[in-house]
Structure formats: structure tokens, C-alpha cells
Amino acid sequence: MTDFRDSTDDRASAIPRRAAARTARLASLPLGMAGRAVGGWGRRLGGQDAREVNAAMSARAAEQLFEVLGTLKGGAMKFGQALSVFEAAVPEEMAAPYREALTKLQSAAPPMPARQTHRVLAEQLGRRWSERFAEFDDEPAAAASIGQVHRAVWHDGREVAVKVQYPGADEALRSDLRQLQRFARLFQTLVPGTEVKPLLAELAARMDEELDYRTEADNQRGFAKAFAGDDQMLVPKVVASSPKVVVTEWVTGTPFARIIQDGTREQRNEAGRLLAEFHYSSPTRAHLLHSDPHPGNFMLLEDGRLCVIDFGAVARLPEGAPLTFGVIMRLALEGRSAELLDALRAEGFVRPGTELDAEDVYAYLAPLVAPLTRERFHFTRRWAQQQAGRIGDTRGQDFRTGRSLNLPPSWLLIHRVTAGAVGILCQLDAELELRAIVDRWQPGFHEGAG
After folding, report:
1. Does the keyword RNA-binding belong to this entry (predicted)?
2. If both were cysteines, with which of 136, 200, 303, 315 could 152 make a disulfide (CB 3.0 to 4.6 Å apart)?
């Protein structure tokens, strides 16, 4: 268990570090997709149904895209995980292959060898690291984008999760994000309803935070303190941390990915309600926002609580959620179009010198606050697909209005995380009383009533 000698197998199975090798893997994506496009065009000329050909092409593109992103780990896998919450917006005839490929990305990646894991543990926890554990399972229990998780027993008998960062993850992350930015337009066509360029820019900006597990540990401690003793939420406590290893309490539950796949109606609704409660209450309770919303980071426990893990990406909100966010939602909900446009201008959502019709802006935003128009709202894939189609239809007024609006940098993360949470609600097919949750926790929403 403490033999740290190099081996050929170790090097072969490590995260691919050489920029040239990783670039070649990523570069294969547009080439493969272009080849399929030419083949599909030929089949359409041959009389095959266009929808069937397009669906088949998209299925193979999804399979190739997420296979490459998953095996590369690093920034490629992180980007795939970030995209995964928008799967609900993919047209139904294409959704099955996306769903399967994305679910794999949320929880699995090729593991690194035990000796390599031991080497990282020795570097981070000391050469006598094994003495800190009563037991340590060399077989990883799960994989993250830049590390893998092992199940173990701490020296005091507590079951723990040990997240170990892949050697070379920093180089891989930087290389991947540079390459992925080159292909942003390609990914935009594969996952409609998402803004891929800002997403990649945000991942790049937060890269250094995620690479230092001490930051993640501090984030998790903040959430654990805020939700300590809560009867609805559980954030596992941090046991130990270092730059490339973090040890937290082990928790067993039903992953959201499994509930999405075959959960009961009751499970779906409760998982959705708890997720919404956590998302909207965190800025007030913890002054933090969990910013990595994908199903792999949430579990439903046997006692009915929501367990949240992975705090590498967290937004600090010392003043809580922006008051203006609630005001904008309320104005859109009540159809106060002139005041809505004024509020958007004041916050920087409208570029200086841009002329916009208040009614067009209201028509653009009103469907997005539909979940707040009734006591209970049913989040469905169909609803997500309708919104993605409406906003992405280049022939429609909503597309032109959206192009005229601007997302201020300070709002980028909140917007993306909220959209991600809604994407999970649609994957869950959850029905819940969202309006009551927003009214309780979102500053400016209740106060904005007039």
C-alpha cells in the first residue's frame, strides 16, 4: 500500500497531460461531426427522412462528444458536466443518446492506478498517510472532473470520502479550456438553449479556485456550518484537507441521476423541492451559492434530506442574492413592462444606445417566469424544449430581443446556476411549489409586489 515506485502502467493510465495529445483528441470532434454531416446530406439526397437522418447524426455526435470529454477528464469532462444539466432542452428524438452519455459523465471516468493514488496521498498527507486511516479502498467509488473519490475509514472510526486530484490536472484543465473555446460554436449547435462561450469563459476564470482543494474545503465548511442541524439539508463535514486531497464525511443516498432515470413520482417531486429550497436559501443562509449544478452533486437520503457534495465552484455573496433579481422576476410576473425595461437598463442588461420595445422585452421574459404564475408548477422536458426553441428560433422576435440584451459579468454565474437548477428540475420532471420558495428566500421578490 505504500510502494511508490513508478511503473509503465502508472504513466499510461495517468490523466493525459501532453497538450498535443489532448488537442488531437478534442480536434477529432469537429472532424468527425463534419464527416457525419456530409454523410447525412448524402442520405437526405437519397430520399431518407430528414428528421430520422438528423436524429441519427445527433445521436452519434453526442456519443462521440461525451466519450471524448469523459475519457479526457480535466476541463473537457468539467465542461461536459456543465452542459449535462441542459439535456432536458434537447429535442426528444435526440434525447436518449444524450441522456445516456451525459449520465455516464456525471459519475464515471477512467480511474488512475492505486500506486499513483498512493503517491498523491503521500505528497499531500505525508508518507505515513496510511496511519491516518483505519481502512482505505484502493478502488475509486466515483470520479470527478479533476479527481476521483475513494471510500475509507478515518482513524477515529468515521466513514469518509477521500477526493484525490489527478496528477497533471492543472495542465489538462488549462489546455482543455483553451481548445474548447475554439469549438464553442460547434457545441452551441449540439446543446441548444445554452450560451457556451460565457460558460467556458467562466470555467476558465474559476480554474485556480477549483484546483486548490483547500478552497473547496473552506467552501464546504461554510455550507456545513450554515446548514448544521437542518432537518431538510445535509452538507458533509470536512475532516482534513490539503491542496490536492480533501477528506469529508461519507454519505450514502440515492443520486439524482438514478431518480431522473427511474424515480417514483414522490421522489421526483421531493428531490425537486429540496433542490429549489437549497438553491434559493443558500445566499441568505450561507452567503454562498453552490455553482456546480449537475445531478452527480445531489443525493436524496433515506431520512428524506437532500445531501449536497462538491463545493469546488462556489460564488461568494456577502450581501446575499441580488435584490434586483427578485424585483425583475416580480415585474415580469406582473406584466409591468415599462418598469421591467427600466430595471434591466439600470442593472446593465441593455447595452447603452440600444433601442428596445418594453413589450418585446416582457414577451421575451414572461415565459421564463411561468413557474411563478401558479401555486404548483410542473417542470417538464417539453417546457424546457419550448423555451430553448423559442429563444433559439432565428426567425422569431424573441431571438432578436435576446440578441439585444446583455448579461452583465456580475450576473453571469447566478444566471448560469439558476438555469442549471431549472434544467435539473426538468430532468426530474418535478412538480413543486416554487413560488412559495422564491417568495420566502429571494430578496426583492416579495418586496417588489405593488
Report:
1. no
2. 136
Share of the chain above pLDDT 70, in %: 66
What CA–CA distance (Å, rounded) separates 342 from 158? Answer: 55
pTM here is 0.77
Neighbours of 236 (CB within 10 A): 18
The interaxial angle of helices 358-365 and 337-347, nearest 10 deg, is: 90
53 and 195 both lie in a single domain: yes
Residue 91 has pLDDT above 80, yes or no: no
For residues 356 and 401, the answer to whether their CB atoms sit within 8 Å is yes
Answer with the residue of higher pLDDT: 217 or 201. 217
Beta bridge partners of 153: 135, 159
Q: Does any domain span residue 99?
A: yes
Residues 82 and 194 in one domain: yes
The one catalytic residue among 10, 170, 292, 429 = 292
List, in sequence order, every beta strand (DSSP E) within 187-269. 233-234, 238-241, 245-249, 254-255
Q: What pLDDT, on the 0 to 100 scale, is given for residue 31? A: 42
> Can you tell me which residue has the cell 412559495?
436
160 and 93 belong to one structural domain: no
Question: Residue 143: its pLDDT value, please?
Answer: 74
> Is 292 noted as a catalytic residue in this protein?
yes
